[in-house]
Amino acid sequence: MRVVIAEDAVLLRAGVIRLLADEGIETAAAVDNGDDLLGAVKEHRPDLAIVDVRMPPTFTDEGLRAALGAREAIPGLPVLVLSQYVEESYAVELLSAGAGGVGYLLKERVADVADFLDAVRRVAGGGTAIDPDVIAQLMARGRKNPLDALTARETEVLGLMAQGLSNTAIANTLVVSHGAVEKHIGNIFSKLGLEASAVEHRRVRAVLTYLERS
């Protein structure tokens, strides 16, 4: 696997490069701003871009904008965004930009090496990885929405889907059968009005609905 990293904090950037190298993951380029990120992904065509949300010059959303631009330049480019704080609108906007291959983690999650590397592999493989703290904050909004139709168990399953867990991992977490998880997911799709489509990825759409309306 080859990655491009965009992170202006020198120590964190070096730390991520070292973590990845220890796992045999090559860093094709490491930059500290959004413009250079776009150039690096176009030049190296990496398997994954790891991007800080806030970078120079204004330290607001340059990283996110660059990540979205990179996905426009290279459709389907997996992007794992890192943020210092829970900024829920960024997670929703990133997920809205494509069906899979996206992640949003708090920087503190990098300290948990196993979780971070799992997220790297999951996103690079086309899946999603959303930080549990982001999901918890979105759930705290408490406004009425289509998710009210879901049972407590279905909501729990959808929350685990939002974290990027596979059906097997969800079954193991909830200590239920694989078939039970598939049934819950089928009910979730039905209740959210997500019909089967060759164009739209229902799993990602369900997660996006969860993040937007929880």
Strand content: 5-15%
| Main pleated sheet | 6 strands, parallel
Number of helices: 10
Estimated helix fraction: 40-55%
Task: Give the low-pLDDT segments.
Answer: none
| Order of strands in the sheet with most strands | 2-1-3-4-5-6
Give average pLDDT, whole number: 85
Q: Distance between the terminal alpha carbons, to the nearest Å?
A: 34 Å
What letter string, H or E per element, gives the SSE order?
EHEHEHEHEHEHHHHH
Instruction: Tell me the Rg in angstroms.
Output: 17 Å
In total, the number of strands is 6
- How would you sum up the global shape? globular
Q: Could you say which structural class the secondary elements and strand pairing correspond to?
A: alpha/beta
Helix and strand layout, with pairings?
Layout: E1 2-6, H1 10-22, E2 26-31, H2 34-44, E3 48-52, H3 62-73, E4 79-83, H4 88-96, E5 102-106, H5 113-124, E6 128-130, H6 132-139, H7 152-162, H8 167-174, H9 178-191, H10 202-213
Parallel strand pairs: 1-2, 1-3, 3-4, 4-5, 5-6
Helix pairs in contact: 2-3, 4-10, 7-9, 7-10, 8-9
What are its keywords?
alpha/beta
